[in-house]
Amino acid sequence: MTQLATTDLSDAHEEKLKYPDPIFRDFGGLLAFHGPVLTLKTFEDNTKVRAAVEQPGKGRVLVIDGGGSLRCALFGGNLAVLAAKNGWAGVVVNGCIRDGDELAAEAVGIKALGAHPRKSVKRDLGEFDVPVTFAGITINPGDWLYGDRDGIVVSSNKLPD
Description:
Layout: H1 6-13, E1 17-18, E2 25-26, E3 33-41, H2 47-53, E4 61-65, E5 73-75, H3 77-85, E6 90-97, H4 100-104, E7 109-115, E8 127-128, E9 132-134, E10 137-139, E11 144-148, E12 151-155
Parallel strand pairs: 3-4, 4-6, 5-6, 6-7
Antiparallel strand pairs: 1-12, 2-7, 3-8, 3-11, 9-10, 11-12
């Protein structure tokens, strides 16, 4: 997969892009990633996160709106292994991760607000393929997300390589 720098994309396509607030930290083994978005809205429950990464990723980016909760983690080492094995390009969590060293060892891009040692509850709550709004923008299912060290940009369609 060709890595596209968010700065270059911004310079070439500024009028087409959405820019989330720069509140995310890098945790994954890949710092640059991109792909079409699958959205998931959930709160302090990662049951559907697991269900997503157990499926073929096909180069997609899982965008999890965890409501910005800093009280538990929605994504950890076991899920990172599944995401990498099943072909997910990246995961963006509006919430926390855990198992930071394990996440850094996996070939998947992972961005989140922070880290927390507490696991989430398991109630099988959440909804896929809905628009999610956080960090000052709305991300729709099927949007394209591009992430690297400089941040995240989102486009309603795939940008030229």
